[in-house]
Amino acid sequence: MGATDRFSPEEVQRILGLTGKQLDYWDRLRLVSPRKEQGNRFYSFRDLISLRTIKQLIDQGVPANRLRRALAALREKLAQVHRPLSELRILSDGKDVVVESEGARLEPLSGQFVLNFETRELGEKVRVMVGPNADDWLATALEYDAEENTRAQAIEAYDHALSIDPQKVDALLNCGTLCYEEGNLKKAAEYFMRALQVDPENALAHFNLGSVLEEVGRLEAARLHLRNAVRLDPSYPDAHYNLAFVCEELGARNEAQRHWQAYITLDPSSPWCGYARQRLAGTKARTAGTT
Questions:
Q1: Are 284 and 276 in contact (CB under 8 A)?
Q2: What is the CATH number of domain 1-59?
Q3: Cα–Cα distance between 174 and 84 in angstroms, integer?
C-alpha cells in the first residue's frame, strides 16, 4: 500500500464531508473500519469508495443498520465477495437497497431479504428470511448506546444479542463499558471476563478488565491483564498509561518508567501527556535516590 493510498480520518472527513462521529459509528457497525499501524488509524482508497457509497445510500434515506444487514446477507450468500461496498453495484430508491453482482440481487423487503440467482444452474428466486438476529440486536444497541439517555435500552438490546449469540464479543465489551460508566464495576468485570472466555487474546477486554480491577484495588490482577493488553497491542497508549500507574502503586518503578515512556512516545499530544512526564520524572528521581 503506497503513501497515496493512506488517508487519515481527518482527511476522509474533509474529502467526503463526513464527521468523526459518523466514521466511528460505521466502524462500530463494521461497515468500514480503519486500519491501525503504530498507533495511527488510516483508510485505503478502496475504503474511501466504500465510505462514499455508504454516505450516498444514507443520504437517500437508507438506515445504516439496514445497509449492514443487507451486506451481511450478501456476504453469507456470495462467499467470494469480501468488500461488497467497493466491489458491487449498490442502488437504492430511498427505501430499499438493491445489491447486484454477476447476476445476484439482494433486496430488503419489509424486513426480509430476497436473493435472486440468475444463473444457468438456478433460475428461480430464493427467498431468505432474516429475522432479528444477534447482529440486528447489536446494531439496535449501538444506536441506543450513542445517546446517554437510552443506555438502559442499549444494555437490554446487548443482552438480547447475547441471548442469541453468547460469544458476541462486541456486545460483551460494549455492555461491560456501559455498566462501568454507570458505576456497576462488578457487573462490568463480569462482562469483560466473559469476553475473555470467548477471546482470550482480546487486548481491549484485557485492558477494560485490568482497569476495573485497578479501581477496586486488585492491583496484581490488574497488572496481569494490563500486561496482556500491551503484549497483544504494543501501540495501545491507554494500556501503557494504566499499567504504568498500577506498577507505581505496586512499587515496580522500573516497569512503570518503561510504560510511562511508551505512553509519551505513542500519544505525545494527549492532554494527559504532561502528567505522564511528571510521573516519569518522579519515578526516575525516586529510583535514582535508592541506588
A1: no
A2: 1.10.1660.10
A3: 26
DSSP string of the chain?
--GGG-B-HHHHHHHHT--HHHHHHHHHTTSS--EEETTEEEB-HHHHHHHHHHHHHHHTT--HHHHHHHHHHHHHH-TT-S-HHHHSEEEE-SS-EEEEETTEEEEEETTEEEEEE-SSS--SEEEE---S-HHHHHHHHHHHHTSGGGHHHHHHHHHHHHHH-TT-HHHHHHHHHHHHHTT-HHHHHHHHHHHHHH-TT-HHHHHHHHHHHHHTT-HHHHHHHHHHHHHH-TT-HHHHHHHHHHHHHTT-HHHHHHHHHHHHHH-TTSTTHHHHHHHHHHHHHHHHHT-
Smallest CA-to-CA distance from 210 within 250, 161, 257, 251 is with 250
Give the start-to-end residue ranges of the domains of the chain: 1-59, 62-131, 134-289
- Residues 3, 124: Cα–Cα separation, whole Å: 47
At 46, give phi and psi (nearest 5°).
Answer: -65, -35
Dihedral of alpha carbons 39, 44, 50, 52, sign: positive
Q: Select the more confidently predicted residue: 281 or 250.
A: 250
Please give the single-letter amino acid code of residue 265. Answer: T
Confidence band, pLDDT 50/70/90 cuts, at residue 150: confident
Kindly indicate whether the domain formed by 134-289 is annotated with CATH number 1.25.40.10.
yes
Distance separating alpha carbons of residues 243 and 251, to the nearest angstrom: 12
Dihedral of the alpha carbons of 75, 77, 81, 85, in degrees to the nearest 10: -50
CATH topology of 1-59 equal to that of 134-289? no
Query: Cell 437510552 identifies what position?
Result: 150
pTM exceeds cut of 0.70: no
**Predicted pLDDT at 269:** 87
